[in-house]
Amino acid sequence: MAISLTEKAAKHVNRNLEKRGKGLGLRLGVRTTGCSGLAYELEYVDAPNETDEIFESRGIKVFVDPKSLPYIDGTELDFAREGLNEGFKFQNPNVKDECGCGESFRI
Q1: What is the rounded distance in angstroms from the CA atom of residue 54 to the CA atom of residue 78?
Q2: What is the dihedral of CA 2, 77, 67, 101, to 10 degrees?
Q3: CA–CA separation, 61 vs 47, rounded Å?
Q4: Which segments within 1-107 are labelled E, that is strand?
Q5: What are the pLDDT digits (tens) for 44-98?
Q6: Are 95 and 106 in contact (CB under 8 A)?
Q7: HSE value, Cβ hemisphere, 13 Å, CA-based, for 93
Q8: Rounded to an integer, what distance in angstroms lies between the CA atom of residue 7 and that of residue 77?
Q9: Is the pTM of this model over 0.70?
């Protein structure tokens, strides 16, 4: 089981942690929503949950709750700029289908 970050994603997270002046890493999870059923959730972590699985990639700790892990195991998190838009991109090998707007997915 693993979650990884590309170099661009790790640099982006590190910059934001430095701007915040605190934080242990990034939390990656899923929630039920959208057209296809699941959507990613990201937030910065100041204190881990007792049940978190912790992965480290390129010097960044990624915290994942045990309920989300089966849906995102093997995911690589990238950060991309496309024109005026920028954001995280998820390369999740478990995804079977995504909604047309790209906000949710199905396993």
Answers
A1: 18
A2: -150
A3: 12
A4: 4-5, 25-33, 37-45, 53-57, 60-64, 76-82, 85-91, 97-98, 105-106
A5: 999 999 999 999 999 999 999 999 999 999 999 999 988 888 999 999 998 877 7
A6: yes
A7: 9
A8: 10
A9: yes
Q: Can you read off the two tokens belonging to residue 45?
A: 């972590």
- Spatial separation of the C-alpha atoms in residues 24 and 65, rounded to whole Å: 15
Contact 33, 46 (CB under 8 A): no
pLDDT in tens, 12-57: 999 999 999 999 999 999 998 766 688 889 999 999 999 999 999 9
Residue 51: CB atoms within 10 Å: 9
